[in-house]
Amino acid sequence: MNEKLLLDDGTELEQVFCRPDTLTDVPYHYCPGCGHSVVHNVLMEVVDELDIQDKTIGVAPVGCSVFAYHYMNIDMQEAAHGRACAVATGIKRVLPDKLVFTYQGDGDLAAIGTAETIHTVNRGENILIVFINNGIYGMTGGQMAPTTLPGMVTSTSPYGRDIHMSGYPLKITELAAQLPGAYYVTRQSVHNPNAVRKLKKAVTKAFEYQMQNKGTCFIEVVSNCPSGWKMTPVETIKYLEEVMFPYYPLGDVKVPKE
Amino acid sequence: MIKGTVKIDAKICKGCELCIVACPQNALALSPNFNDKGYRYVELIYDACTGCVNCALVCPEAAITVYRQAKSSKKSQLKSE
Amino acid sequence: MEKEIRKEEPRLMKGNEALAEAAIRADIDAYFGYPITPQSEVIEYLMREVPNRKDKKIVVLQAESEVASINMVYGAAGAGARVMTSSSSPGISLMQEGISYIASAQLPCLIVNVVRGGPGLGTIQPSQGDYFQATKGGGHGDYHLIVLAPASVQEMADFVFDAFHLAEKYRNPAMILADGALGQMMEKVVLPPDGGLSKQPKPWATTGKTKDRNHNIITSLFIQPEEMEKVNLELQKKYEAMQSEVRWEEFQTDDAEILLVAFGLSARICQKVVDLGREKGIKIGLLRPITLYPFPYKRIDELADKVEFILDVEMNAGQMVEDVRLAVEGKVPVYFKGRMGGMIATPEEILQEIEAIHEKQNVLHD
Questions:
Q1: ipTM summary value
Q2: pLDDT mean over A40-57
Q3: Does A116 sit within 8 Å of C71, measured CB to CB?
Q4: For chain C, which domains are there?
Q5: B3 contacts in chain A (CB < 8 Å)
Q6: What residue ranges do the domains of chain A occupy?
């Protein structure tokens, strides 16, 4: 970060932002404009800033972010679909001094892994759960997720999600916040620079709480899926603001009492 | 105005344009050229960058390095004025 | 493994409890499990005993399901811990996806199956109906567990040590395949020595990336087919090497004209059949596979040269008998006697079967 740059007119510039050191050099496989990569960047920036690379162990899910371990230069485990929270429990229980996080999509965390998610939070497992909600199954080609909004078109709801047939979008973050084991629950996004700044603060807090053994921290990131939504990345910003955020309002859902 | 600049790693840029809309100075644009992966990458098109970091924060590829006028050099500049 | 001389007084214990106590003495780091009959005493014993062992640091956690249990095992094993779970047939079925991942990621751990009658919810009575599931992989993909089949409460305890030793030696999941009777019955047992199983470093484990090494990744995903095949070849090579660990036991096979093959509880019953038969002048011998994977094909093949016929006895519809037939390759007839659904054949019933076959054989030969 100390690299300096001298402009032609003699002005000296200092480096104020660069790729996090804890990211590997492997280019992301994600589609252009995908929020996954931004969240990866933020996580690794925080790991850099808190200097916890040697203490942090991540758990990757099944879904688009299945290869998260290729990019994050930390020890990681790849869990079976939906079981990241159970895997993280196993790691944290035998290595209680390490910092453990899961990184899961909406299908992984809120459909197939609902039981593990709820019970892990209910035990107050001292881990961070990062939940990426883009309302669609990206990896398998754009099928309906538990968080798909009513009327939203996906490849398995080609005429829009019908709540009479498929039920309602699951607000699992609010559900998790009801549990006494949840210490800090928040819903963030990465759709503009300020949102990214806020997410970074939330992740930093969550790791600090984990160091203090406070219980489960749960961060939902309402994100996009340009390919699945069949929009340009810039169009997804508008969709997030106009359609997703009214149903999934941003902000803290549960904050520590002290 | 504080001076800044960005270095964009054209090799890994996917031309998603999120940095372009995030730039308050409208100083970024897609290049007419393509990188090896076939994407039109983003370039700094004129010298209005303030080093605000917005583009780098939203860049999914972590492809942007940001530089900003050093506080000390700003001071020395003020003195000379 | 070499059997050491044990100084400890014998104790009268249930199979499940002896196994749990052996786990404590084997210095497990963690146990994750979910109650299911007939093996709930394992987690109950650990929950009760571990807090009293001030010298031990063991995590014992009741998970929300067998699915969660096995994935907790994955996480802890990947983090370098000596870890185990136990369950019974339906619970083990639920774990199969996780076990496949563990086998692919090459993580050592112990899975105990105290088998009950099936299929389905079945019965809580003893069975050997999970032989195929245990020895042929069980989940998806080409893999094997190391499978040990105890036949006494003593072995319920001893095999915990043997299973961890082998699992860690080969970085492979190991299974103790018991049954409801072995889990529930009480017998004399001399427990293995406390702390008698050393721990080796696991440089591959995810313990936090330090500056002096690359990041460790525990995964079973190898998306390029070339890479996936390479991993499979590596696994197959490992299974080949494991064949040297094959173990079995023989009773009166020296002069046997009829060979019984049985594992676990069935082998205990067949020991009695050997005695009853010899009282009547029928020269019966017994081979009892101790490791079901690897399987003693070669020894059974050798014995087949010396006997008139083989009777395979199991508490199922005939599972191990397929391996016995593979071993014998048609050299002598291989018959099967089985009871199912939690029923256990009596020694008299088995002897009658032998006599009936014997008679039939003689008619054929005359």
A1: 0.97
A2: 98
A3: yes
A4: 11-244 (3.40.50.970), 250-365 (3.40.50.920)
A5: 7, 11, 13
A6: 20-254
